[in-house]
Amino acid sequence: MPPAIVVDGLHKRYKRTVALDGLSFEVPAGALTGFLGPNGAGKTTTFRSLLGLTRPDAGRMEVLGMKVGPDTAAIVKRLGAVVEEPGLVKGLNGRDNLRVAALTLGRGAERINETLEFVGLTDAADRRVDGYSKGMKQRLALGAALLGDPDLLFLDEPLDGLDPAGQAQIKLKLRELAQQGKTVVVSSHNLSDVETLADHVIVINRGKLVSSGSLDALLGRSGFRVVVEPLADAGRILTAAGLNNTVMDGALIVEAEEGSLISRALAGGGLFPSELVRQSARLEHVFLELTGGS
Ligand SMILES: Nc1ncnc2c1ncn2[C@@H]1O[C@H](COP(=O)(O)OP(=O)(O)O)[C@@H](O)[C@H]1O
Ligand SMILES: [Mg+2]
């Protein structure tokens, strides 16, 4: 399956702040991807760029096989998003908020009841939203994003500020959506959110990619550190050979029982590593390093 999102060399500068500094990554289709980075890393700017809400200074973006820019209108029809504060009308009840969202979207009104059911708000649907807990508001915003039955969902820090019960409810829903075959991208500045939720992880800092790959590979289960050029070709060869791999610090971390499986696959593609050593790359280690231990 082609990737759901391709971001290549994205740059964005706000006056004196460089928000995105050559950011490149891919998001696999049909998985739950955690988009992890400390505050200010560029997560929201990336989402806004992918949604066509902000225009990057340079770089290429593809979403669901379409180019952001020329095809943005077609893309927006196939995605749902909650970026920054959910845009809810506090004086209206939950159901009327979804009616407003369906009107804005131009469709989805027939899905309001099932959507309320899915996000667990059927009983609260006739209550005003200003009496909702933060978790209920977040679930209602998720419902609004789901009205158009999107293939791709962007959620910016959906777990932020929720109590453990509220977080668990959202996580359950996000997993269900991924199981339905939707591509779900969830940003967070919190390592444990991502560690307990995502199949795939992208770590960014200061507008650059730090690391990306399957959660298992990032957690370093039977991993090898492989230095080989060109890295991207090596990654593709190893993936085709069924070996999960992730880019980290100019090398690949590859999941395999034996190092010989890696060298054989690479040799088959005409590549020979200059270094191949056993290494575990704990996500925690990666994250502490990139956030300077804070
Ligand atoms: N509209 C804006 N004007 C000026 N600077 C901004 C704006 N939006 C974001 N930034 C800056 O860009 C950087 C990345 O921000 P952001 O994408 O919001 O990061 P994150 O969502 O990972 O916390 C930060 O330094 C932030 O202060
Ligand atoms: Mg943000």
According to DSSP, the number of beta strands is 14
Mean pLDDT: 91
Contiguous uncertain segments of 5+ residues: none
**Which fold name is given in CATH as the topology of the largest domain?**
Rossmann fold
At the first level of CATH, the class of the largest domain is Alpha Beta
Helix amount: 25-40%
**What are the bound molecules?**
adenosine-5'-diphosphate, magnesium ion
- According to CATH, the homologous superfamily of the largest domain is P-loop containing nucleotide triphosphate hydrolases
What's the helix count? 11
The appropriate CATH architecture of the largest domain is 3-Layer(aba) Sandwich
Order of helices and strands: EEEHEEHEHHHEHEHEEHEHEEHEH
Specify Rg, calculated over alpha carbons.
20 Å
Q: Which descriptors apply to this entry?
A:
294 residues; alpha/beta; Alpha-Beta Plaits; 2 domains; 11 helices; 27% strand; binds adenosine-5'-diphosphate
